[in-house]
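Pasting as-is:
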Amino acid sequence: MKLSIQGLCCISLITLVLTVGCNSPAANTGGTAGANSTASTVTVIEQKIKADSKMAGADIKVTEQGGNIVLEGTVKSPDQKDTATSIVVAAQKEKKQQQGVVDNTLVAESGAPQGGK
């Protein structure tokens, strides 16, 4: 079987397009394309959580892991949990970054007995 130069160029072009297309950010994230979250995003989110009066009493640690924002700690209510997630998504939108958060926060039980009794 003899391939012409045009045939080889066509095969090379198709291979290149498939290789580049499969490595694009949108193909790998399964979500909106954009830059990964960074340490500066973490700082912005921490500041917004502290400044939000609805987040009073929440104890949240914000980190970046592999381009994703992770929330850990405790909140006083499910509403605070939702607000924290909303703050993350809003900050990511402002910075034109991929949107998403791993929310590992726990809602603290109010009125729970202290000291294991």
